[in-house]
Each structure stands twice: as structure tokens, then as C-alpha cells.
Specification:
mainly alpha, Cytochrome Bc1 Complex, Chain D, domain 2
Length: 219
């Protein structure tokens, strides 16, 4: 091979390398995009719809009204997620979590043979029993109710699902009575206007003022 051919081949190789180097620098500049402020896709999740008549999430249920009408069978179905860690048998056997037979009305962190976390022991120090309201709040978000608890369940957002589950747990050896329904506010009597609509009371005379003159009769 002649010296001229060798130089041509070397020149072609150097030229190709130069072109590739330029493309490696220029191409990303041409197609550069500003990254989004928030990576990923924004997905809007519709809130869960509870059954008709379920209380709003930020309200305290009237337990004397909602428990007698709760769907116990639906509550038992919801308890399936709890059975991965808890036992429901009358013997009170423990599993990864404490046995839940008789939990309604039981003192928190008191089931025999189970090693409770410091978080649940702190709950027990201020809450004498698992009543309906505290179970309702705990089941919504255990980690919020008892920060540091060993229970990793994320919670049950639906108010009606929690009511149904508590109604089911109540059938498992609970002695906590269901309270009577809260009294309803009395409606105004028919035909009687509220006091605020009957007009302002007559003004009292100013002390020391002369009485208003009597009307003059025409003769």
C-alpha cells in the first residue's frame, strides 16, 4: 500500500471521528428540553363513596343510630384484610398482631401474651378502653392515631366501612353496650312563630322622661 493511500485512510478516519465528536456535542443541544417541575404523571383519584347515610369523615357518628343499622356481614368481609395479622377466635390466640376477639371495650395494649409497642402503651396510658369512637379513629389511620405503632396497615378511609367493621367486632364477645340514639333537636310548634320573628319588645321608658301625651279627642 502506498504512502498516499495510507494518508487518505488516516485522514478519513480522523474526519469521521471529528464529525462524530461534533454530533455528540451539538445533537443534545438541539433536542434539549426543560425537565417538568414535578416528575411523573398527575393522577387524580376520586374519593371513596360510602353507603347512603354514612357520616361525613370529619364528624362523630351517632353510635346509637349507626350501629343498629350497620351491615355486619359487610363488616365481616372487610375484616378479611385484618386476618393476615390477627386471629378472631374466642380462645384469643395471638398472631403477628394481638387476638381481636373481645377487642371492643377492652383496654388498649392489654391482651395477654402480646408484646405491644411503646406507641400502643402510650395510647393505653390515656385511653381506658377501645370504645366505638376511638376504634373508628384508629382504623382510619393507625399510624396517625398512634405514631410509631408496629401495625403497618394504612387504614380504612370509608366511614361506613369502619362502622360496619366495628359492628362486626362488637359481635365477637364484646360487653360494651350500644348507647341510645342522640336526641334530635325539637322542631318549633306548628303555628307558633319563633321568638325572633315576633318583633322587637317594646322599649322601656327612659328614667325621668315625661310620659307621652295622651291623644286629643275631637269634640
Amino acid at each position: 500500500m502506498s504512502e498516499l493511500s495510507t494518508n487518505k485512510i488516516a485522514g478519513a478516519a480522523l474526519g469521521t471521528a471529528l464529525v462524530l465528536s461534533i454530533l455528540a456535542v451539538v445533537t443534545p443541544m438541539l433536542f434539549e428540553r426543560e425537565p417538568p417541575a414535578k416528575p411523573g404523571y398527575a393522577i387524580t383519584v376520586a374519593p371513596e363513596e360510602g353507603a347512603a347515610g354514612a357520616p361525613a369523615e370529619n364528624l362523630t357518628p351517632d353510635w346509637g343510630t349507626v350501629l343498629p343499622t350497620a351491615d355486619v356481614a359487610a363488616g365481616e368481609a372487610k375484616a378479611a384484610v385484618c386476618k393476615a395479622c390477627h386471629m378472631f377466635d374466642p380462645a384469643g390466640a395471638n398472631n403477628i398482631g394481638p387476638g381481636l376477639y373481645g377487642v371492643v371495650g377492652r383496654k388498649p395494649a392489654s391482651h395477654p401474651g402480646f408484646a405491644y409497642s411503646a406507641a400502643m402503651q402510650a395510647v393505653a396510658a390515656k385511653q381506658p378502653i377501645w370504645d366505638y369512637q376511638h376504634l373508628y379513629e384508629y382504623l382510619k389511620s393507625p399510624q396517625t392515631y398512634a405514631p410509631g405503632t408496629k401495625m403497618t396497615y394504612q387504614g380504612m378511609s370509608s366511614a361506613q366501612d369502619r362502622i360496619n367493621l366495628i359492628a362486626y367486632l362488637h359481635t365477637l364477645g364484646s360487653n360494651l353496650p350500644i348507647p341510645p340514639p342522640a336526641p334530635k333537636a325539637a322542631a318549633p310548634a306548628a303555628g307558633k312563630a319563633p321568638a325572633s320573628l315576633s318583633g322587637p319588645p317594646p322599649e322601656a321608658p327612659t328614667p325621668g322622661a315625661s310620659p307621652a301625651p295622651a291623644p286629643v279627642k275631637a269634640h
